[in-house]
Automatic annotation (TrEMBL):
GO terms for cellular component: plasma membrane. This is Cell division ATP-binding protein FtsE. Keywords: Amino-acid transport, ATP-binding, Cell membrane, Membrane, Nucleotide-binding, Translocase, Transport. Pfam families: ABC_tran, NIL. SMART domains: AAA (SM00382), NIL (SM00930). It comes from Paracoccus chinensis. It comes from the Bacteria. Belongs to the ABC transporter superfamily. Residues 10-249 form the ABC transporter domain. Part of the ABC transporter FtsEX involved in cellular division. Important for assembly or stability of the septal ring. One of its GO terms (molecular function) is ATP hydrolysis activity. GO terms for biological process: amino acid transport.
Length: 348
């Protein structure tokens, strides 16, 4: 369950960002409003060009909004300049997709860099750097250079560096998209631990719904510079409203059908119906299919399924085949038991 505080650490209010271009301006963001809850992990997902990277860069003033207001920890980033902006940026750490490490600095030197820039005394730098390197599990590699590290190790250095100024907000710019699946899981586990142990607010952008599923408490879905859907991650997975959201979810919650079935599915027709059933919360463990047969006499053939955990709660999908003439009764029965259904087509 999500137990993060209810107040926002970051707020976007009617935020727009346009880029001048020959023939007229191009809108990267179009009147975006969003609250990022303090102490939680919020994911922003969208396709390339959706505006998510621009949204992230507004938080630490790397970009300026063309209209609207962005507040971080109660301070207006939109109007911050000079010393005020530098102070705000110390409260906002950022980790990058391609690590952005200095090749001529060791792990220790890369982590120390933001503290040196901030003018922190050397004894304090040494203390923080040693603690952070241990926190990210690189204590034995402190004197290695980036060229001697794996991708996952480089990202851990990037995370330690982002935490050096003891920020209250951590931004993640596609931090795992350049990593293999196993390393991705390790980095996500580290971010979860940091969120839990340090109470950091984390705002991450991604194009992978699996990342949202594995780490986020809340999610905002972007398309063409706008937020089309937002809410708690579990609720979005259990009951997506927008077609863009459903298209993202199909890759992580859709059951893969056997090829000989998938090739025969047609949008309409009077052949057997292929029905996807979503189980959420308490319903995830209910024996509804056996009841479907016992109470309604409907034979449902299981084609595939999965059950997993999202934000501490069970969530599952089951794809079944039912006779076409029984489809309305089956859906009515399943909906009465708080299950969501989707007709994928009919077997032609």
């Amino acid at each position: 369950m999500d137990t993060t505080p209810s107040h926002a650490a970051i707020t976007f209010r009617e935020v727009s960002k346009t880029w001048p271009q020959r023939g007229g301006a191009v809108a990267a963001l179009d009147r975006v409003s969003l609250d990022v809850q303090a102490g939680g992990i919020t994911g922003v997902i969208g396709r390339s060009g959706a505006g998510k990277s621009t949204l992230l860069r507004l938080v630490n003033g790397l970009e300026r909004a063309s209209a609207g207001r962005v507040e971080v920890l109660g301070r207006d980033v939109t109007t911050a300049r000079g010393r005020e902006l530098r102070s705000l940026r110390r409260d906002v750490g950022m980790i990058f997709q391609h690590f952005n490490l200095l090749a001529n600095r060791t792990v220790r030197g890369n982590v120390a860099l933001p503290l040196e820039i901030a003018g922190v005394a050397r004894p304090e730098i040494d203390r923080r750097v040693a603690r952070l390197i241990d926190l990210v599990g690189l204590g034995a590699l402190a004197d290695r250079y980036p060229a001697q590290l794996s991708g996952g190790q480089k990202q851990r250095v990037g995370i330690a560096r982002a935490l050096a100024t003891e920020p209250k907000v951590l931004l993640s710019d596609e931090a795992t998209s350049a990593l293999d699946p196993e390393t991705t899981q390790a980095v996500l586990a580290l971010l979860r631990d940091i969120n839990r142990e340090l109470g950091l607010t984390i705002l991450l952008i991604t194009h992978e719904m699996a990342v949202v599923r594995d780490i986020c408490h809340h999610v905002a879905v972007m398309e063409a510079g706008r937020i089309v859907e937002t809410g708690e991650t579990y609720d979005i997975f259990a009951n997506p409203q927008d077609p863009v959201t459903r298209s993202f979810l199909s890759g992580v919650t859709g059951t893969v059908l056997p090829g000989f079935i998938a090739r025969r599915i047609v949008p309409g027709g009077d052949g057997p119906a292929i029905l996807r059933i979503t189980f959420a919360g308490d319903s995830a463990t209910h024996p509804v299919l056996s009841r479907l047969g016992a109470e309604l006499g409907i034979d449902a053939s299981i084609l595939g399924g999965s059950i997993e955990e999202i934000d501490g709660r069970p969530f599952g999908n089951l794809t079944v085949q039912v006779p076409a003439d029984a489809l309305p009764r089956a859906q009515e029965y399943l909906h009465a038991h708080d299950l969501r259904t989707e007709v994928l087509g009919h077997v032609g």
